[in-house]
Amino acid sequence: MDEFIVNVGPDEDGTLSLIESIGDPKIKIIRSQWNPHLDTGGYLFAQQTNIALFNCTGSWAFYLQADEVVHEDDLPLIMECVERYLEDDRVEGLNFWHLDFWGDYSTLLNVYPFRGQRRCRLVKPHRFVLSRGDAAGFTVHPKYKEKGRRIRVVDTGARLYHYGQTRTEKTLHEKWQSTQKYHSERPTDDQNIDFYKYFPRQFMAAYKETHPKVMADRIKKHPVSLDLSSPSWRTTLTWGERWLLLKTLFVDHVTDRLSNRGSYKLLTK
Amino acid sequence: MISGFTFIRNAVRTDYPVVESISSILPIVDEFIVNVGPDEDGTLDLIRSIGDPKIKIIQSQWNPNMNRGGFIFTQQTNIALFNCTGKWAFCLQADEVVHEEDLPVIKKCLEKYVDDDRVEGLTLKQLNFYGDYKTMMNVYPYRNRRRCRIVKPHRFVLSRGDSAGFTVYPKFKEKGHRIRVIETGAKLFHYWNVKSKKALEAKHKAVQSYWGDKSFGEREFDYYQYFPRQFVTKYRGTHPMVMSKRISSHPVSLDLSTSSWRSKLTWRERRRLLKTMFVTKITDRFSGRGSYRLLKR
Using beta carbons and an 8 Å cutoff, which residues of A are at the interface with B? Predict the structure, then answer.
């Protein structure tokens, strides 16, 4: 990577100096304002992602959200794809496998849509690519006109570690409350989160492999540790949850193989 | 709250009236976002010299791979647009100026349609000047061109094409639609080719690198030959006050009655004149032309 664009919003807690403290000349900081009227659906995140995207000068742009980490073992795999599809105009983006952790570093969410979710994170910024929806993916608007279409992607097979929920119950609750103002359509949830009760045991799986090396310090210090065999887990399912398990099965065995889910068009390698 | 926004790069070298442009709407906006590209000729200092606390400068990079169709302008416009915090955002390109007489009209529309969800943008009537301040383009698509320049940034609005207008992508997903606009009736003075020859050449060269091959030719620019006499007309009205200094020091003056004008038309130019008639008399009355959907007031 030759440059890393960091779009820092209005700074209230020293985020800017945190980014500056990385001290790498590749890092280019842009400061932005956040539109207070875009308060539903997380759409503000797409705007802010686009600001950073349009500042990219490379032939490829690698997008990472602030709680996503790439494993150093996967970097060669990614580089290979980046070189291979650089001149291939069919390909507009590259996909990653999302791993969603829950509570600690050894518990994975194992249901749709979290499990094995493919995320487009590497795009060609000069191919009319725009951040989509709540910035979960990308879309293509040829010539920036009215008719858009799904982005054409290739799977890299690389993993994307998503540590959004790897917090303590208290900080997770705080995070959810602070994002409320960008999702004002969601109900305010004043109840405290209990890791063992929020999702049932059936939604979880153990993660036994290694984590990215950069995370070592955080993993060592992490105060939460969930026990998958603990009886504190909720095991009675609501009807919605049963349906979700069924959907997970269905997606795994049928839809995911035939077509591909989500907002991209998967090309065969 | 109303935001203004624009993007600019190399304004000094290409002699864009960007300071006049920004100043012309400063009285009605609460903030003005200026997206300044990589600075090579002191543009950044020029913007800072305006010295108004409403002006917020953002510095950006320009993607070198976006070298066709002027699409880089859209990216840069969007950067400024997404930084706007107002309920309305007023886009002025660096050579567009609003007349102080029109500000009350615009202000009234802004207030009237702020909570009307049908309306996503407002249009202005663009006057395209050619060569000097009294010569105006009089053919399609330049004559009285409606331009959407005021939008609601929280209604999924994005800059369109080569940033000539705006488009709407609900929820920022794949399906977009033409922006729904109301006509304000206010004028937009576009000092298109109103520059000294040197600045004009610098502009064409700069623009060419973002347009690929589709642009002005390499040959020397001659005002009297580039367009035929039939394409231009005299402008008799007043100009925005902010422009007075530029107008008095402008080096070019075209004479509309001189015989140097080309009067022989190519077939394409004849077709253009015919189309101008057709558009003014028929299409423009019924539908809105271009990339917007005109709503009734």
Answer: 5, 28, 30-38, 41, 43, 46-48, 50-51, 54-57, 59, 125-126, 128, 130-133, 139, 141, 143-150, 263
Quick check: B83 and A33 CB within 8 A?
Answer: yes
Which among A30, A36, A37 is the nearest to B60, CB-wise? A30
Alpha helices in chain A (DSSP H): 15-20, 43-54, 75-84, 169-179, 195-198, 216-221, 239-250, 256-258
How would DSSP label each residue in B164-199?
TEEEE-GGGSSB-EEEEEEEEEEEEEEEEE-S-HHH
Under an 8 A CB cutoff, do A56 and B87 touch? Answer: no
Q: ipTM value of the model?
A: 0.91
DSSP 8-state secondary structure symbol assigned to residue B291: S
B contact test, residue of A38, A47, A49, A185 with most B CBs within 10 A: A47
Output the pTM of the full model.
Answer: 0.93
Residues B174, A36: C-beta atoms closer than 8 Å? no
Q: Which of A4, A26, A29, A35 is the mutation pick for testing B, counting most B CBs within 10 A?
A: A35
- CA nearest to B15, candidates B33, B35, B37, B42: B42
| Count of Cβ atoms closer than 10 Å to residue A102 Cβ | 23
Name the band, by pLDDT with cuts 50, 70 and 90, for residue B145. confident
Q: Indicate the residue of B76, B172, B178 with minimum beta-carbon distance to A133.
A: B172
**Pairs of CB atoms within 8 A across A/B:** 112
pLDDT surpassing 80 at residue A246:
yes
Q: How far apart are CA A120 and CA A93, in angstroms?
A: 6
Domain layout of chain A by residue ranges: 66-122+142-269
**Residue in B59, B78, B176 nearest the CB of A146:** B176
**Nearest-angstrom CA–CA distance, B146 and B292:** 9
Burial classification of residue A28, based on how many CB atoms lie within 10 Å of its CB (0-12 exposed, 13-18 middle, 19 or more buried): middle
What separation in angstroms does the CA of B8 have from each of A146, B30, B44, B59, B94? 25, 20, 9, 10, 7
- Return the pLDDT at A86: 95
Q: Which residues lie closer than 8 Å to B153 by C-beta, 6 or more apart?
A: A35, A37, A38, B3, B81, B82, B84, B86, B88, B89
Contacts of B65 in chain A (CB under 8 A): 57, 59, 125-126
- How far does Cα B233 stand from its chain's mean position? 19
Residue B279 CA to chain centroid, in angstroms?
21
Whether B268 shows a pLDDT value over 60: the answer reads yes
HEC states along B196-259?
CHHHHHHHHHHHHHHHCCCCCCCCCCCHHHHCCHHHEEECCCCCCHHHHHHHHCCCCCCCCCCC
User: Residue B219: pLDDT band by 50, 70, 90 thresholds?
Assistant: low
